[in-house]
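User: quick one, sequence for these tokens?
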């Protein structure tokens, strides 16, 4: 027998997984802040033990475990995004405890030739008290529209992303990297003298990368500090996902939330979800990338348009869209639910 400890980003052990001699996981234990065991799951049988107020409670499955907490919460409706354990737990709660009518399934998967079996059960047998399926992909929603099923139960509803700042349209581009392998960096720097390239690395930089500071529009930040990272996120309005190797600190997602205009190459893109239509280039198309960058920083209308394409590509919607689709549904007592 051997085990593997799990730590959070603060270095605290929150769980431990035990393996048998064939390296198959058999048990997983979760700990509270003081290190005491609170949940133990048998990964072979599905049994779960919850230690609560000095007593052990036993559950035969994850859905039974979830229903235990739903009983305590007594929700008026349930929002869930999976047709596995969340669906089964909602269905069991509606069957055993309280029949709900306004649960919502948020569907985030692609749709093939037909919808999944559990989704058919929602439509045909009204299982899990679900009266709305919010499809969060335009492509999947369009595919559903082509199927011969009850269309009234489906609505398109994308994602609400946090916005920490507004794009200022400045000619400051940011690159994070852990290596000196940055696709077409010198070519872009030479073609775009009007853009200032800020390159940050968590480690020291190689002589090859340090040599880039000979260009007047390049600033390097080796062994960058947290304060410098925060300052650069506030200063820069363009993010270039053009470094080879691993993505640094989920930089592409952060850039999207920061309202930066994101460009990438096909062979360097780390998270295509946030790279808008027309912002992804082949390596030998660096001149086209440079021209589009030049147009964006020289014309606020172009920058706004390109940011809009980026938002559309990531399925971004406003809170008002949520209020329109689900905020005015009536609950069982005839009163309006509060907006989500």
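Assistant:
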């Amino acid at each position: 027998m051997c085990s593997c400890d799990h730590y959070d980003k603060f270095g605290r052990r929150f769980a431990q997984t035990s393996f048998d001699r064939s390296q198959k996981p058999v048990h997983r234990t979760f700990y509270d802040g003081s290190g005491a065991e609170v949940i133990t799951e048998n990964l072979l049988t599905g049994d779960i033990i919850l230690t609560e107020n000095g007593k052990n409670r036993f559950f035969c499955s994850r859905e039974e475990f979830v229903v235990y907490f739903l009983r305590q919460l007594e929700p008026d409706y349930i929002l869930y995004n999976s047709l596995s354990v969340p669906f089964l737990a909602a269905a069991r709660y509606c069957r055993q405890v309280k029949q709900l009518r306004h649960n919502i399934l948020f569907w985030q998967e692609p749709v093939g030739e037909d919808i999944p079996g559990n989704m058919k059960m929602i439509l045909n047998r009204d299982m899990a008290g679900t009266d709305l399926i919010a499809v969060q992909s335009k492509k999947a929603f369009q595919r559903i529209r082509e199927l011969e099923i009850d269309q009234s139960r489906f609505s398109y509803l994308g994602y609400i992303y946090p916005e920490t700042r507004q794009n200022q349209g400045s000619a400051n581009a940011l690159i994070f990297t852990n290596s000196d392998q940055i696709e077409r960096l010198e070519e872009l720097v030479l073609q775009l003298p009007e853009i200032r390239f800020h390159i940050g690395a968590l480690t020291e930089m190689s002589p090859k990368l340090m040599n880039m500071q000979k260009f007047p529009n390049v600033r390097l930040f080796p062994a960058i500090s947290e304060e410098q990272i925060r300052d650069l996120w506030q200063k820069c309005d363009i993010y270039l996902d053009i470094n080879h190797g691993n993505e640094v600190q989920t930089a592409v997602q952060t850039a999207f939330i920061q309202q930066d205009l994101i460009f990438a190459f096909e062979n360097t893109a780390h998270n295509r979800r946030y790279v808008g239509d027309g912002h992804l280039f082949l390596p030998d198309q660096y001149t086209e990338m440079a021209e589009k960058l030049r147009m964006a920083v020289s014309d606020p209308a172009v920058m706004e348009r390109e940011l809009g394409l980026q938002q559309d590509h990531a399925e971004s919607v406003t809170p008002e869209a949520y209020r329109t689709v689900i905020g005015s549904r009536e609950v069982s007592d005839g009163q309006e639910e509060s907006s989500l």
